[in-house]
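Any chance you could type out a protein's amino acid sequence plus the matching backbone structure tokens because I've never seen that pairing?

——
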Amino acid sequence: MHSAYLLTGKPGTGKTSLIRQVVNDLKDKADGFYTEEISTGGIRQGFRLVTLTGESAVLAHVDIKSPCRVSKYGVDIRALEETGIPALQRACREGKVIVIDEIGKMEIFSDKFRQIVLDILESQQKVLGTIMLKSDPWADIIKQKPQVKLLFVTRNNHTQILTEIRYWLAAFQR
């Protein structure tokens, strides 16, 4: 049986929305983080990392000056390492479902993030996350790990994906 379910798909297909629905079901049995857009006047300005305990940090923004860049966004690796990684470590220690939204271009700039993802996958703890669709040498290794089940999300298969994730997690929730 797979210990990690990773959602992938094109931007805007609702991967994070699915994660948040499942997290709602799990209540205090999950920890980790998700990302959300920062918008001003309907224009995306960046991305915020939000832990399941309510902490947040700006992960990427058009105004961040950083050598780590994805498109027009400067990436603040420190925000990920000081807010996101501790949430993942806490989930591991407490034996909770580990939520990682997402394993993407911005996050994999961090060596510490890449290492904790590998450690978590090797631990066989339950992981629910999202991973970039586009090919990337490191992300492709994660996608091919035997403990990972990759679920391709479209706008039309949310109910099916949600049902499959809930079934997978049912044993953990008891």
